[in-house]
UniProtKB/TrEMBL annotation:
Keyword terms, alphabetized: Repeat, Ubl conjugation pathway
UniProt cross-references to InterPro entries, sorted A to Z: ARM-like, ARM-type_fold, CAND1/CAND2, TATA-bd_TIP120
Source organism per UniProt: Sparus aurata (Gilthead sea bream)
Domain called TATA-binding protein interacting (TIP20): residue spans: 1003-1165
Stated family: Belongs to the CAND family.
Gene3D superfamilies named among the record's database cross-references: Leucine-rich Repeat Variant
Keyword presence, Nucleotidyltransferase: no
Residue numbers spanned by region Disordered: 315-343
Gene: CAND1
GO biological process terms on file: SCF complex assembly
Keyword Repeat set for record: yes
Protein name: Cullin-associated and neddylation-dissociated 1
Length: 1193
């Protein structure tokens, strides 16, 4: 301790030296000392250090001054509060000094101090007192207009402080405002500009009264319109406020917009530019309030997009020459300020119009068809713009339009939507020729920026409309080649050109490019040899695609006549092999060279007889390297699957054992790819794969067949099925081995379904067909059904009976000779009444044997007489799902009438199975059965009504079905049950609605206007549904409406994904807000919704932020009663975590933390240890999740 203060007093002594170098070094050492965390100063040292640093700020030497200012930062956090006040006082006084240099240094010092203060959310007292001290001095400095530079510095510091610590200065806001407003009419434009910045930061944290004062002032001044110059400033100010606090200005737009529209017509280019910029900020920041004015905004923007009074675009040829002349002009025109020929500010107006259109297009999804009618042609016409900055913005606006068209494809490509005439996609399709014509000229421009814009455009266009450019390829390819060959192209331009070429080649048919291959190959090969690795890796992707183009394998005979690949093979092979052999290159280039060579061998291997063996050996080397092994496995899979039957025999003895060893590795992607590779090697090279190789693989399989990873199990099973066909002899060792144990365990797993189950069935059929001793039909049957019959071992899960039954059925199908006898046994067993679960097995066997006529009547009769209805109905459901339509047609009436008897059953489980059967039956003959279902909606029994509505749910699937148009016409009638008096029917109706919204939004999009009010109605808590139940001495409240509300909120969540553009987001938010205060389950759902909404429509959420933060805060600060059960504590923790996730999501909206309530809540979180810990861990999770999603993309 003593040594530190001794060291510092030594330094202070040196700082008084007359030699500037001594002073400099001492200050530098002090800086180092102050930055150490361990340093502690006693009061005396503190005082001395502070005095010294402040003295050095007035040093004669500039470098010493600069260092002294830098010391202020660490010093503020190390000394006591009153010392910081001394520092601030001195700096403020110096700011008003006559010496310019001292003023500059002091203002930098103040900024440093403000930057070092702890953020407002930490609730530190220091920040508050310092800010209050500075504020008074600054307002007086701003108000005095003698010296402009003092004013400018003071405004700058004020803006900085309001931005960082605005919330602490609430009491000063009125005085700050009254000091700032007069500055808007200052004679100096720079002062006005900084005042606007300060006001922008003020409105983020000021109270409502101050905000109203400010807006009223602006409106009055704009209404008076004294002179042009101040009017411009006021418009700029309005735009700035809207940018910083759009959620607050919304309610005044009705008054503001007419004024701005009026000023657009005044002949003053700067004013026009500011007006259009103001529109842009309104469109982005106040989506709801600006809605009625959007058409006006669009028409103004379209008018000024072409506003170029000093230029004549009459003759296209002249235009080209003029372009060159114009480009030479630009160089000596100087910067904007010097070049003040008033007439040519018009480009700024055009740029503002393009940016504003960009904002409109990005935010108003529902107006796409309108945009394609009016905005799209106007933008395309302006691709010829002569100012490069404006051109870039025009391109950007068009890109936004394309991007808006893209995410909606799920419902645009929907058959029903197509009938409504022009969808955005068909309109875009019709404009492609016009776009290409406009781009064609630009692709040969000198400007790199323009060409980059063109490539981005083409890439996006092809992503939205794959195949749209087939007719235009001859026009575009020369333009792309031009950029690849051009010496002046930057590397980024080349990368963009290659990426664009790649996307076009992937999305268009090969024959379209055949004429251009001679021109394409040389520049692409040159790019593969480029020294910059990013260009190389992009060019290898293109080469890979080129290989597919010059020799597409899908239609061998036809393509070999039409196009001869041989002249190009050598070039492509040579450039790729050079990259493949190099060991010292970038990882990405290695991987892409491997993939590219894989493609070359796959498509052209038969033309490279001499090079092949050597290349395969390189692959073997790459297979042994941990970094490249995954890519190599994929390349080998590709080669092994090639129809050219490439000779892989030389490498198989080495490769297969290596592949087998990969099955042990802990890398899932590697396991999956390896299983696929082994599978295809077995299929196509069975003669070359020896039993020894097979054994090596079989040894690795048992751990892979387990319920922990179904996808891996599925691949392993399909490998075994292939093995049963190619090497039946190898299966002999299965009978005693682990693999069968694993298989039987997997069959009994409740998770076995879908692809894995199908693979399991295939394997059993393939296995029984090999007739391996010990694995015959009866042996396998015993293994499968053993546990069903042994009374002691009950199976862990109902689902297992079903899986076993399906396996038995598959075996029986494979052995038609032994089948019937077994079925006979089962029927005997069933009648004599063995344990439950057999009807399932039994009936699946019936289907297996394919004798519907024989067995179906028997089942139906059993259902009407038997006690085991539930299981028999399940079996019936399986029959309906898996039998062929034609086979079932004759029985539809019979089954239907039987099901109707059961649809009023008391037991909900049985009703659900009946409903599923009804739904699946309806799909067989929708024309007659759907109207019948609709008829039952009038039924007196609420059970019957709920069964019918549930049945509709099972007719909706995410694939197009013949029933869709019929459903679309009558789903409204089924959804009318949302008003049904019975709770359960309403709940079922919501579940059906949710299913429709999720799987086929087109069914319900048009009904939303009528359905949403009913949906929102169900989100309210109903007092009359809450009842008290006495459980012994305790009273317990039961809310019968909870399930209903839960279903309603689930529907709301689904609509966010599928129908966001049809929802009034503010009404939606009202109900989300109520949900935040509801029961545990519903809170959890609404927290998820908030997180989703923060990313989907941040501006709307921002407008409601204050109302949303309160309930979140309440959840996080609720305490559980100390004597509660463990579950209560866990629930509360889960709620807190979930609420914190919502808070973290809300904070991703850039302006959220500026809201006073939010920043208060943040300081509450950081001061509470438990909450702070949760908050940090969630923030870490979310940032790492973002990183991962970037990796996978």
């Amino acid at each position: 301790m003593a040594s530190a203060s001794y060291h510092i007093s030594n330094l202070l002594e040196k700082m008084t030296s007359s030699d500037k170098d001594f002073r400099f070094m001492a200050t530098n050492d002090l800086m180092t000392e102050l930055q150490k965390d361990s340093i502690k100063l006693d009061d005396d040292s503190e005082r001395k250090v502070v005095r010294m640093i402040l003295k050095l700020l007035e040093d004669k030497n500039g470098e010493v001054q600069n260092l002294a200012v830098k010391c202020l930062g660490p010093l503020v956090s190390k000394v006591k509060e009153y010392q910081v006040e001394t520092i601030v006082d001195t700096l403020c006084t110096n700011m008003l000094s006559d010496k310019e240099q001292l003023r500059d240094i002091s203002s930098i010092g103040l900024k440093t101090v403000i930057g070092e203060l702890p953020p407002a959310s930490s609730g530190s007292a220091l920040a508050a007192s310092v800010c209050k001290k500075i504020t008074g001095r600054l307002t007086s400095a701003i108000a005095k207009q003698e010296d402009v530079s003092v004013q400018l510095e003071a405004l700058d510091i004020m803006a900085d402080m309001l931005c960082r610590q605005g919330g602490l200065l609430v009491n000063f806001h009125p005085s700050i405002l009254s000091c700032l407003l007069p500055q808007l009419t200052s004679p100096r434009l720079a002062v006005r500009k900084r005042t606007i910045m300060a006001l922008g930061h003020l409105v983020m944290s000021c109270g409502n009264l101050v905000f109203i004062d400010l807006i009223e002032h602006l409106l009055t001044e704009l209404g008076r319109n004294d002179n042009m110059s101040t009017t411009r400033t006021y418009i700029q100010c309005t735009a700035a406020i809207s940018r910083q606090a759009g959620h607050r200005i919304g309610e005044y737009l009705e008054k503001i917009i007419p004024l701005v529209v009026k000023f657009c017509n005044v002949d003053d280019d700067e004013l026009r530019e500011y007006c259009i910029q103001a529109f842009e900020s309104f469109v982005r920041r106040c989506p709801k309030e600006v809605y009625p004015h959007v058409p006006t905004v669009i028409s103004i923007c379209l008018r000024y997009l072409t506003y170029d009074p000093n230029y004549n675009f009459d003759d296209e040829d002249e235009d080209d020459n003029a372009m060159d002349a114009e480009q030479n002009d630009e160089d000596y025109q100087g910067s904007d300020d010097e070049y003040s020929d008033d007439d040519d500010m018009s480009w700024k107006v055009r740029r503002a119009a393009a940016k504003c259109l960009d904002a409109v297009v990005s935010t108003r999804h529902e107006m796409l068809p309108e945009f394609y009618r009016s905005v799209s042609p106007a933008l395309v016409c302006r691709f010829k713009e002569r100012e490069e900055n404006v051109k870039a913005d025009v391109f950007h606006a068009y890109l936004s339009l394309l991007k808006q068209t893209r995410p909606a494809q799920s419902w645009l490509a929907d058959p029903d939507a197509m009938e409504q005439g022009e969808t955005p996609l068909t309109m875009l399709q019709s404009q492609v020729p016009m776009i290409v014509k406009a781009l064609h000229k630009q692709l040969k421009e000198k400007s790199v920026k323009t060409r980059q814009c063109c490539f981005n455009m083409l890439t996006e266009l092809v992503n939205v409309l794959p195949g749209a450019l087939t007719q235009h390829i001859p026009v575009l390819i020369p333009g792309i080649i031009f950029s690849l060959n051009d010496k002046s192209s930057s590397s980024n331009l080349k990368i963009d050109a290659l990426a664009c070429l790649h996307v076009i080649m992937v999305t268009h048919p090969a024959h379209a490019f055949h004429a251009h291959v001679p021109a394409l190959v040389p520049p692409v090969v040159a790019c593969v040899g480029d020294p910059f690795y990013k260009i190389t890796s992009e060019a290898l992707l293109v080469t890979q695609q080129l290989v597919k183009v010059i020799r597409p394998l899908d239609n061998q005979s036809e393509s070999s006549d039409s196009f001869d690949p041989s002249p190009y093979i050598n070039d492509l092979f040579t450039c790729t092999i050079k990259r493949l052999k190099a060991a010292d290159i970038d990882q990405e280039v290695k991987e892409r060279a491997i993939s590219c060579m894989g493609q070359i061998i796959c498509n052209l291997g038969d033309r490279l007889p001499n090079e092949l063996p050597g290349t395969l050996l390189i692959f073997l080397e790459r297979l042994k390297n941990e970094i490249t092994r995954l890519t190599t496995v994929k390349a080998l899979t590709l080669i092994a699957g090639s129809p050219l039957k490439i000779d892989l025999r030389p490498v198989l003895p080495d490769a297969v054992p290596i592949l087998a060893s990969f099955l042990r590795k802990n890398q899932r992607a590697l396991k999956l790819c390896t299983l696929a590779a082994l599978d295809i090697l077995l299929r196509n090279y069975s003669s070359a794969v020896t039993p020894v190789m097979v054994d090596a693989v079989l040894a690795e399989l048992p751990p892979l067949i387990s319920e922990s990873d179904m996808h891996v199990s599925q691949m392993a099973l399909s490998f075994l099925s292939t093995l049963a066909v190619t090497h039946p002899s190898s299966l002999g060792q299965l009978s005693g081995g682990n693999i069968l144990q694993q298989l039987i365990t997997l069959v009994r797993s409740p998770l076995l379904q879908g692809g894995a189950l199908a693979a399991m069935l295939d394997f059993y059929q393939a296995l029984v067909a090999t007739e391996t001793p010990g694995l015959g039909y009866m042996d396998l049957l015993r293994m499968l059904t053993g546990p069903v019959y042994s009374q002691s071992a009950a199976l862990p899960h109902k689902q297992a009976y079903c899986s076993i039954a399906k396996c038995v059925a598959a075996l029986t199908r494979a052995c038609p000779t032994e089948g019937p006898a077994v079925v006979g046994q089962f029927i005997q067993g069933n009648v004599s009444g063995t344990p439950y679960g057999h009807p399932g097995c039994l009936l699946l066997l019936h289907i297996a044997v394919g004798n519907l006529p024989e067995y179906l009547p028997f089942v139906l009769q059993e259902i009407s007489s038997s006690k085991r209805q539930y299981l028999l109905l399940h079996s019936l459901k399986e029959i309906i799902s898996s039998a062929s339509v034609s086979g079932l047609k004759p029985y539809v009436e019979l089954v239907w009438s039987l099901l109707l008897k059961h649809c009023e059953c008391q037991e909900e489980g049985t009703r659900n199975v009946v409903a599923e059967c009804l739904g699946k039956l309806t799909l067989i003959d929708p024309e007659t059965l759907l109207p019948r279902l609709k008829g039952y909606l009038e039924s007196g029994s609420s059970y019957a009504r709920s069964s019918v509505v549930t049945a509709v749910k099972f007719t909706i699937s995410d694939q197009p079905q013949p029933i869709d148009p019929l459903l679309k016409n009558c789903i409204g009638d089924f959804l009318k049950t949302l008003e049904d008096p019975d709770l359960n029917v309403r709940r079922v109706a919501l579940v059906t609605f949710n299913s429709a919204a999720h799987n086929k939004p087109s069914l319900i999009r048009e009904l939303l206007d009528s359905v949403l009010p009913q949906l929102y109605n169900e989100t309210k808590v109903r007092k009359e549904l809450i009842r008290e139940v006495e459980m012994g001495p305790f009273k317990h409240t039961v809310d019968d409406g909870l399930d209903l509300r839960k279903a309603a909120f689930e529907c709301m969540y689904t609509l966010l994904d599928s129908c966001l553009d049809r929802i009034d987001i503010f009404t939606f938010l009202n109900h989300v807000e109520d949900g935040l205060k509801d029961h545990y389950d519903i809170k959890m759902l609404t927290f998820l919704m908030l997180a989703r909404l923060s990313s989907l429509c941040p501006s709307a959420v921002l407008q409601r932020l204050d109302r949303l933060v309160e309930p979140l805060r309440a959840t996080c600060t609720t305490k559980v009663k100390a004597n509660s059960v463990k579950q209560e504590f866990e629930k509360q923790d889960e709620l807190k975590r979930s609420a914190m996730r919502a808070v973290v999501a809300l904070l991703t909206i850039p302006e959220a933390e500026k809201s006073p309530l939010m920043s208060e809540f943040q300081s509450q979180i950081s001061s509470n240890q438990e909450l702070a810990a949760i908050f940090d861990s969630i923030q870490r999770d979310s940032s790492s999740a973002n990183m991962e999603s970037m990796d996978t993309s």
